[in-house]
Design goal:
single chain; 91 residues; mainly alpha; elongated
């Protein structure tokens, strides 16, 4: 696998993981007992911590990409692993 492919696939893993991580641990102003700014959405986070989100996203995406790369290298799961899903039943 080329290094450019590795970077591109890791970037995809990172972005997908970021969308999974973003809602975890978020509390609204109402839940935290903080006053809301006029015009603020009710669902706006009151404790947004971008560094924690970046760290969690980077760690989880690195682990998931590591599993993907190991599977790519060693071929644990390939396209033939799912042939049983597309077999027509015999009557």
């Amino acid at each position: 696998m080329n290094w450019s492919s590795i970077v591109a696939i890791y970037a995809l893993f990172w972005v997908m993981t970021a969308f999974v991580i973003l809602p975890i641990g978020v509390r609204t102003h109402e839940e935290l007992g903080l006053p809301k700014t006029p015009g603020q959405a009710d669902s706006a986070p009151g404790n947004f911590r971008p560094r924690v989100i970046l760290l969690r996203t980077t760690l989880l995406s690195a682990a998931l990409f590591g599993l993907y790369y190991l599977n790519y290298t060693y071929g644990w799961v390939d396209r033939h692993s799912f042939d049983w899903l597309f077999v027509r039943p015999k009557y």
